[in-house]
TrEMBL record:
Cellular component, GO, one term: cytosol
Gene3D superfamilies: VC0467-like
Residues annotated as transmembrane: none
Pfam families, A to Z: DUF179 (PF02622)
HAMAP family membership: UPF0301
UniProt-recorded name of the protein: UPF0301 protein O6P33_01355
Length: 188
């Protein structure tokens, strides 16, 4: 009998109420990649006290103007490489640092941020600083320890659901009400 898990790429990881790691407590992670070597994802329900307008001002592009109609919140994508920006978006526009993950793409180059700020960027999109990463077997161990629920992702939750409702909406995909789950874990 094989103990290998199938790939969870394209799934949500929903932190169980028992999750105590402050980087992930109460979080929903969208997994972009998951294979035998590890996993890569973005937390989709934690915004920072930062907006695209503020990032744009820090970039100080000489020949670009900011369109306030395209301002958006910046998310805390995870504890790994928190100084790097990532844009999660539908496939379509190509930028210097775009990598495709199924129906979605992840871009890690400044040209995407500038395009969004000017109204020429991918829509819908989510901008995050940092990402979530796991080494080989780490997610599987955490799932066995009941740290996460997992389910196939619904992109509407990422792009259309209010931030405060994303965790309960993701859990509802499984028919789970997180408010009714016990904060105690046990085995019978």
């Amino acid at each position: 009998m094989s103990s290998a898990f199938p790939s969870l790429a394209g799934h949500f990881l929903i932190a169980m109420p028992t999750m105590t790691d402050p980087a992930f407590a109460q979080s929903v992670v969208y997994l972009l990649a998951h294979d035998a070597e590890g996993a890569l994802g973005l937390i989709i329900n934690r915004h920072m006290d930062l907006t695209l307008a503020e990032v744009f001002a820090q970039l100080q592009p000489e020949d670009a103007s900011f369109d306030p109609a395209h301002n958006q919140e910046i998310f805390n994508g995870g504890p790994v490489q928190a100084e790097l920006g990532f844009v999660l978006h539908q496939r379509g526009p190509e930028f210097q640092g775009t990598t495709h993950f199924g129906e979605l793409a992840l871009t890690s180059s400044k040209d995407a941020l500038l395009a969004i700020a000017q109204g020429d960027g991918p829509t819908p999109s989510m901008i995050a600083l940092g990402h979530a990463g796991w080494g080989a077997g780490q997610i599987e161990d955490e799932l066995r320890a009941n740290a996460w629920l997992s389910c196939p992702a619904d992109h509407k939750i990422i792009f259309d659901t209010p931030i405060a409702e994303r965790r309960s909406a993701a859990a509802a995909l499984l028919g789970v009400d997180l408010d009714r789950l016990s904060h105690q874990v046990g085995h019978s």
